[in-house]
Amino acid sequence: MKLRRSAKFVLLAFAVLLTTGVGYSAYLLSQIVPVGTAYAAKTLCSWVFVSSRPVSDVIREDVLADNHPLLRLVRPAVDKGRRVATATFLGLAQRDAEYHPKLGCTLSIGASAKALSSADIGATSRAEVKRAEDLPVGEPGPGMDAVKLQAAVESAFAEPDAARLKRTRALVVVYDGHIVAERYAPGFSAATPMPGWSMTKTTAAVLIGTLVRSGRLSVGQKALLPEWSSDGDPRAEITLDQLLRMTSGLHFTERYGDPGADVALMLFARADGAGYAIDKPLDAVPGTRWQYSSGTSNILSKLIHQAVNGSEQDYLEFPRHALFDPIGMHSAIIEPDASGTFVMSSYMYATARDWARLGQLLLQDGVWGGTRMLPEGWVKYMTMLTPQSTRKDFGAHIWIKVTPPFNSLVVPPPDLPPDAFHAVGYEGQFVSVVPSRRLVVVRLGLSRGDHVWDHEMFLARLLEAFPRQ
User: Fold this and answer.
1) Which residues, in sequence order, are CB contacts of 67 under 8 Å at separation 6+?
2) Does the pLDDT at position 167 exceed 50?
């Protein structure tokens, strides 16, 4: 009798485990796996069609290397004739990303992006990008230590630990407006547009600055969106300043590596990323809590759309007319989602030299070629501490300290100039500006894993090559 009861218990336990396994598999396929296939398709599309890299290199390095283990079951492919990248998981959960000339790649989610296909953006062609005038190249000048400069550059590309690869892909050092050091990894060059990931957020703040200068936006502005305008909606109290400083109080989960987090769903499972973030409720009273949120940056993209107050074409051309063309960032694009809204949280591509131009504009207080592009004091506003930030390290869509996981674990930490500030992106993208040293440093790479890239230590080493002012 006991044996029979034991056998029944085992069978029941097995049935429960089987049911649970089937249920989890269904959840995996319906929720998590489509995020993985979308990530693979989008990554492949942008690197192949925007950056002109070989398909096999992108799959091996950018999709698979040191990435989520489930991605090893994803099968990405490219149809160059249709300019589409596709990814499936065991033949299921297919996601496509389509390339649109001069706009980059967009995931095909929900509504089709017909407006993107018909857009005729007046951008510079790729052939013209290669001929575009670059920042002048200069030799190390008086007071600069060429040996220390070269040693710092070498250290950025050195790989002392095969299990923790830094994968630096580009490095550009600009001093007094001249490129004094530049190097690229094999397969990359000065003509290769590369992703900035969250450095796109800083570009959003710069674009907002151009609209503040023209009077179309103000930092104290409230009642920002129609979605927040119903009677009693507390989100109507959110100001533009609070969005820029990420103190809006809106709910948003920013957990990289978690396919179910808001950041992953917004980027890889929604046609309208800004709309997804706009619909989030408040977790805190606006202005009382700091929380890093990519959703906030895409809300800013929607606000830019409203402020431009023109056709879809006007909006899609706005970054080029307002910023990229005036300072010569001819390679730069910000990719839109399927709704036609720029993904200002993550999807800007530009060559390392053009990223350096963005840093140089900030170094020059928003003035380029004698023309003021940003309001006087806008860079000071961007780099003013947001006191609610957890580590006292955030301004207005820009970092005033090197943020984890790219800060140094050395005790005491490297002593960097207090006026340094940084645009920072996922996997170790940096535009660092040090006004007191007249220095802009661009580092682009694929650094996966915590503290694989120590940007503080690298900057401290690099600064030893430059004279103190």
Assistant:
1) 448
2) yes
Sign of CA dihedral 390, 402, 200, 187: negative
> pTM value?
0.91
CA 427, CA 72: separation in Å to the nearest integer?
A: 19
> How far from the centroid of its chain's Cα atoms is residue 138's Cα?
30
- CA torsion angle for 278, 280, 284, 290 (degrees, to 10)? -60
Q: What is the pLDDT of residue 134?
A: 66
Distance separating alpha carbons of residues 185 and 169, to the nearest angstrom: 5
Tokens of 452: 């694989």
pLDDT digits (tens, 9 = 90+) for 230-255: 999 999 999 999 999 999 999 999 99
Cβ atoms 204, 293 nearer than 8 A: no
Query: What gap in Å lies between CA 196 and CA 63, rounded to an integer?
Result: 16
Dig out the tokens for 247 from the structure: 């103190």
Round the average pLDDT of the chain to a whole number and report it.
90
Cite the beta strand spans of 342-428 per DSSP E: 348-350, 367-368, 371-372, 421-425
Tokens 């207005």 belong to 396
